[in-house]
Amino acid sequence: MIRTAEQYFELLTNGEYRKIRSRQENSFIIERRDGIAFTPDELSQGTREQLYIALRFALVLMLKDVHSMPVIIDDGFVNFDEKRTEAVMKLLKELRGDIQILFFTCHSHIASKVDSGKVIYLSKESLAAGQH
After folding, report:
1. pTM (2 decimals)?
2. I want to staple 126 with a disulfide (CB 3.0 to 4.6 A). Which of 17, 19, 116, 131 is the partner?
3. Backbone angles phi, psi at 44, to 5 degrees
C-alpha cells in the first residue's frame, strides 16, 4: 500500500515528494526529492492533504477486490491551488478504470476539468422533475 501511496503522492506533488516511510509510532516520515525528511505535521496544509489523499486512494485500491464500493468526494479539493487541482484531477482520471468515483462540486472551474461526457449537472429543477 505504501508503494502505491508513494506513486500517488509523487504524482500529486509533481515529483517534489518521493518517499513515505512508516515509523514505529504509527506515523510517517515524508522524504522530499532533495532527501530532506519531514513529519506530516511539518508539511504545508496543502501538501499534507495531498499525502492523505494518496494514502486513502492507495488503501481503497488495495481493498477494492474485497470491499468494492464507490469513493464519494464532496468538494474535497476546493482549498487547492490550480497546480494541486490539476494534479488531483489527473490522479482521479487514472483511478477511474479501477474504482468508481462519485465527485460532487459546485465549482465550475473544477467541474470544467472533468471530461464533459462524464458530468451530470444537478439543479433544483431537474431534481424536482426526476431528471439529471
Report:
1. 0.82
2. 131
3. -65, 160
